[in-house]
## 1
Amino acid sequence: MKLVVVSAGLTQPSSTRLLADRLATAVEARADADVRVIELRDLAVDIANHLVTGFPSPVLGDALTAVAEADGLIAATPIFTASYSGLFKAFFDLIDFEALTGKPVLIAATGGTARHSLALEHAMRPMFAYLHAVVVPTAVYAASEDWASGELAGRIDRAAGELADLMSHNPVRHKEEELIPFEEQLAALRKKP
Amino acid sequence: MQFGIFSVGDVTTDPTTGVTPSERERIKAMVTIALKAEEVGLDVFATGEHHNPPFVPSSPTTMLGYIAARTERLILSTATTLITTNDPVKIAEDFAMLQHLADGRVDLMMGRGNTGPVYPWFGQDIRQGIPLAIENYALLHELWRNDVVDWEGRFRTPLQSFTSTPRPLDGVPPFVWHGSIRSPEIAEQAAYYGDGFFANHIFWPKEHFMRLIGLYRERFAHYGHGTPEQAYVGLGGQVFMRKNSQDAVNEFRPYFDNAPVYGHGPSLEDFTEQTPLTVGSPQQVIDKTLTFREHFGDYQRQLFLMDHAGLPLKTVLEQLDHLGEIVPVLRKEFAARRAPGVAEAPTHASLLAAKEKVTA
């Protein structure tokens, strides 16, 4: 199975990436998955160019395809100004609107204070719900103070278990594009609505 | 194979001088460019159709009729005619009229238009874009082929015993290309009728258009119009040439960097690598254009976008001189590579000959 990790952390090293890696490792321990990490920082200019031109550079196109073809996705972002980062949103704005349909997704975020933790529930979960992804019940938030706590490790394990379960039991089906023959398109118009 | 130019008709400030042409200047410039196209030996001039600033060509047959009177050989076409928001009856009439005035030197390219607000201005809804394109074209097709038409559809008021006048010249409707950059439904529509399919592939990577054109060719054969290789394919192109390729890059860069479609985005170098845009010497343009047939198969019509992004008229005319120099080379090289059995783009003369053969 293919597990793709999208991390929108900006610093290097990044606490968002650290959280994403811990989640990925915990999923790997429960499911036979090949992990690929996509660092949005490396794609920031390509993402902006795609917004302007309407098509991805080869390296961005490859990342978008990897997300679309993944059996499971871990999406991690820092919380900026009460929501996911602009870079994170810009990347998912470029995803084909059917690419995440039915896909198991684990959402995670980092921030300087625990006060931002519900951004996961108020911003990130609805965005993935809109994209028809299946978001696991446990979302993982790590504030500065959490890095030393055992509670974070517990949440990581629970969330990773939920994602591994979904990936194992709900294989994502990639559907082929269907072409409606022209006669049918024409006939549909001839019928009274 | 036909070579020509197509114009969006944008009024854009020249980023190097800050000069913005007036609407009158831009309209007259488009005419001058069309006349120049004939002078340098091109086959086709196609104008866009837009109903919002900063574009001037809202009335294509008015402009094309004027150009028809001042040219001898040039085929007058569109890129595109809005099949969604125009009344198909008016399209049938306008272009049949143009056919008579231009002695048959007319074809047109159907397009949906991608500007949401334009649709309601004409009483339509962009969410119905594909159904509008399908139904309106079905009516247009019938109006040009049957002298008396009874029609009832979903989008237009019904017609009873209606005759669209003037009838097409010699009873031969203008050849139609269907333009699409995105929709397999339009490739399917073009294939169904045995019409041409024009893929303006200039702003995106080729892989997307290879799928779309592949689909069109396959369905063209499915509907019994010939082999996939015999289907009628048109492609876009976007070039800027100077004898010395570095001069071309230096001169075009500010226009590229500020262009309305892709400016302030990727570098000129990345964009030329990822799309058909070629900025360089005439030989580089020849080499790049010849690669199109390797990706899309032998094709019938090549239209270049030359007058955009605020390029001054003088520069555009110089570019057309360059184009006039390389097109004979392209004709020769394409002809040498073309597989046997591949058709030429239909013209009024060829369609008339085919019709007379059937009725003889």
Note: Chain B is about 45% helix and 15% strand.
## 2
Amino acid sequence: MLSYIGRRLALGLFTVWAVSVLAFLIIQLPPGDFATTRLAELAAAGNPSAVYEAERLRAEYGLDQPIFVQYFTWIGQVIQGNLGMSFDWNRPVADVIGDRLLLSMVVSVAAIIFTWAVALPIGVYSAVRRYSVGDYTFTFLGFLGLAIPNFLLALILMYLGFAVFDANVGGLFSPEYESAPWSFAKAWDLLKHLLLPAVVLGMTGTAQLVRIMRANLLDELKKPYVITARAKGLSERRMVAKYPVRVALNPFASSIGFLFPQVVSGAIVVSIVLSLPTVGPLLLRSLQAQDMFLAGAIVLLLGVMTVIGTLISDLVLMWLDPRIRHAR
Amino acid sequence: MTTGGYSRRGFLRDVVLVSGGALVLGACTSTPVAQTGASAGRGGRAMAGLPDVQGAELIIDPARFPKTFREAPELAKLVADGKLPPVAERVGAEPLVLKPVEGVGRYGGQIRRGFVGQGDWQNAVRFCSGPDSLLYWDYKFENVVPNIARAFELSDNDTVLTLHLRKGMRWSDGHPFTADDIVFWREDVSLTAELGSGSSSMRIGGEQIRVEKVDDLTVRFVSKVPNPLLPERLAGWTDVAGMVATGHLGGGGFMPKHYLSQFHPKYSSVDAANKLAAEAGFKGWAAFFRNQASWHRNPNLPTVTPWVLTRPISNPPWEFGPNPYSIWVDNEGNQLPYIGKITMGNIENTEVLGLRAAAGEYDMQDRHLGVTNLPVLLENEKRSGYTIHRAPFTELDCGIRVNLAYEEDKELGELIRTVEFRRALSMGIDRGQVNEAFFLGTCTPSATMAAEGSIYDPGPEWRTKWATHDPAQANSLLDGIGLTAKDSAGYRLRKDGNGRIRLDYQAFPGFADFIGIGEMIKRQWQAIGIDLNVQAAESNLLIQRATANQLMLSGQQVGTDDPFLKADTFLPTITNNYPGMIGIPYAQWFASGGKQGKEPPESMKLLKDAMALYEKGLSEPDDAERVRIGKELYKMHADQVWSIGIVGFGLALNGVYLTNNNLRNVPARVVNSLHMKSMNNTYPMTFFYA
Amino acid sequence: MPDNATLTASQDEERISVASQRQLIWWRFRKHKLAMVGGIIVLFFYFVALFGDFLSTSDPLASEGQRSMMPPQSVHFFDNGSFSPHVYAVRGERDPITLQRHYTVDPNQKIPVRLFASGYEYKLFGLIPTNIHLIGTEGTRAEESLFLFGTDQQGRDIYSRLIHATGTSMFIGLAGVALSIMLGVVLGGISGYYGGAVDTVIQRLIEILRSIPVIPLWMGLAAAMPREWSVTQVYLALTVILSIIGWTELGRVVRGRMMQIRGEDFVTAAELVGSRPRRIIFKHMVPLFASHIIAATTLALPLMIVAETSLSFLGLGLRPPAISWGTMLQQAQNVQAVALSPWMLLPVLPVIVVILAFNFLGDGLRDAADPYDL
């Protein structure tokens, strides 16, 4: 077991390294560099003659060096725990990401809670009342969430919130709380703003989860122990809740590891539409601006999270199901 | 002692926006359509055009100066606590006195705004920076007036500009503001290669302008040749016009020597400066210095703006507080600003910004209110308690930049350098359609031209020169240059037998949908047998392609409102950025005196003539003659179609500003020009809440 | 465990025992009503895609500023009691104060609408030149008079654009999915069959690809495309990019199944007879779960369509002037459209319908895939 974990960790390290190389290459692929971004900015500001700025930037940040030199400079820093300075923000990358990581987690957790709160009951209901009107209705609604492009849904819901309910528009805080220190009122404000992103982001995952839950539970319901339980006179409701649902939940428990990186990268579009101060829009902007260190750090971070998530979920599965352990 | 007598710009006095012959713009206080029937007076006013340009009046006559001064309560408390000197000491002996549009206000409140990411640093610069340029324009955009400097005079031969500073004026940290700060900027920043590489506005006739300290409060700018436009450069949107606008790029015109010298190796050593930088996480002292000189990033930077940074742009919300040493006072001696706090939320996308504005979550917003969202904003005026004001742009919002030096495809390059071909392209465009579909009919169809009423306006006939929709004439022009062979679909064929004449149009969406505009023009050019390949590209990509001389046509804002102050897209003057795409190799040739780049060929001889005229105008001491040259340049540009103007003078480019109905002293209309650093010319330091 | 419904009568049992696997799947599939409906809808959409020009009324690129943002017209079927479908002429004007364009119907000017009318010229299947359209107008050009779903900002007919977009969006999915299935089966198959070092390499590749957030991958590769490429070429390249990421999921599944059946007797038998690995994998092993692959394909297609719409939103996918559901939705992605011109949001309907249809179809196929199960 320990040697297995050790081997997996070593492979994980390799994967992370490969991700770092790939990430660096991919970020470099689009033409131009951060200096071009600065030039574009100056051109848009009606200040096109400040060209020397671009050349200075290239020299200062080593953008004029060959790509492998840039890579080793960067990865050397990262290994020492220094993520470098964001060109775009002129602040240490760690600070820039740090501000948003917490809020990203909050949004992700809210979305996951929404998904589970909606999907699990529907999944159970659909399995127990298979082929009933309710099963079809809920399944259909679940699929609808999958089918509506969520960026459009976000905009429409946001507009309705504004036009009909006079709700605050976009973001995670009202303007008056944005720079305020944390307080009960601020947390309440955050909660009010969380509903919309949680619903929009959660919708997509719901259909999938309903389907998995339904299938898992159907498998379980056919098992002999269910018949035994029924034969012993357990009420149907208690019986279902007590045994098969628990077993059917196992795969969910094991997938917790992935959820965060998935939600972060899947939420970019929605976060932009809703103007959420999360990591997603930061990643997109850093890529567009070719803010190498910031983009690299975020991609690397997500890669590490996925690798750790995979490892955790594999371990959880092995712990839950001895058969898998032996198969290795 | 005052401004010298050149009242130069009479434009925008009686400008009524005309589109397709009909008046389309409402009054500033527009009402929803349901109400117009009830009140004929308002409707009538709407039809009469826009209100007059307004702005706070600058009081220069010392006899009208206030004798006593008052301040905001929070500052008064600091004085009472002994943490600040009294207000009369802080504003100095010669403050900057403004008479607000409506009247004297009262202190308190905050202004909420939105900005869009780190690239939007000029948001505050163009709203609440004062501006902090040494000189500025009056609100009508007619005369250069004193600003941070108390007065200025130009010598008879226009070679020496003398600036007089304000007695007792201080930086926001209380340190006196003197001539040393200007000399420090020029010698230790602007002329230091790592920081400034000299400012392009500080060169004329190939020579650097010298800055000399006469005494603590007097500075002379000495040019080798007549430099009549230097006051305008110090007043406008250039790298010498204000520290907050270009300080982080090594420009500005002055810098706080007492603060910034600690980061400068000349005042310590390169090692010490680098060490400071490394401690802050920067690579090298120059990067750190420029960061420290950024108004939007460094809250510790002493400034002379009415508001000082309290929370940087990189840690949103971006916030400002009152400058206790602000030199701005109203005509009764109240230190400005009235509203001490400005808070700007970071918005990831402009649609959310538009919605927030419509919901009344902003007190003053101008940037990023897209023209297509105007109907929604107008519809919600009543409900959300704000007013939309219209400030039409002084330039052309939309046109096609043409790369006259295009070489990648020899045959197409030659065609582009053929004047009849460019004229035909221009006449193949139905400008009214572009105006209706993309600008809600708020623009005026025009060739690349100065605004109506501008001192450089050569007359209305030039606005339509080769710029009417006339496919028949366009076709005969094209037939006339031998492009008669067509394929089965009606497209004209190349002479070398390689299929259709297929032009490339590349653009990025920007403040208008330039891709959609390209699609529409592609359709319109079908009628003249010209095929257009429309491509969307990132702005980064366009810059790279522009500097590599690979762009052919690009949809963007074109032209200028002043050929001498900002010739960017108007003449080949920019050597390595996208605005120079009119001909970067030519610009390099002109800039290097023929040593680099490429000489314009015989077919582009008129371009050389235009550049010679432009150079002459730059140091032409006779104002009337310079204006004549300017008009001549516009005429040549329109006649030669060096860029294809489409529509302009509309609301697309920061052309509307939204203000909370409780705000007072808001001008009903302002001049919307880069040189005015609009919306600084709404004088937000005089705003107050009723 | 036999399903009661399938085995009620003994002649059914008889029939089932002699039926081929193909028949069994079909019978089973037919019972899945939703899947049948889904299948028919999907077929309908591909039909629309194939006959795009015929079904359109106007040239999808015909723009007219004076018709910007016109709401959908209503078609009147009866005129004074007799069947005579027509629409009314519409005139537009801009309100000088709200800046909105207002359109008024002119009840005196009727424009007859008929089937098989002549309209703009096109080539059916890219071969047969014709100008006959399913629906059209008489007396005027449809480009000037018939706007079933309204117009967009440039005054282009949304109905016709939607029809054209259907083609683009339905096929972008197809090409991408085909490629990712191929990659998934081949790489997953090899990985599962050989195991060992090959397996480790492919599994690491999958893990790495899955560890990179998709957006940077898309951005990097999309930007790397040469600028001379036309919209169509970019679009093809895009499907390749989509499939580079899309195959990993199927690759894992295929590998798992391969490992399961690797040790079965028939594989050993085939090896002993001297079959080459390629033959064993593709002739003997892959057909065992071919139906699962089909189901996976149906479920992957809607994901591709969704991916295309969100890529276009980010300005990374198809871009105008290409017409796809994604580019159309991108144009509707603004407050103006949602608040004042909601018909711009119409492209979302086919997206929803087709994704639902694909999902139900896929579910049915998966259930039917293994007719001996249950």
Note: Chain B touches chain C through 53 residues (CB under 8 Å).
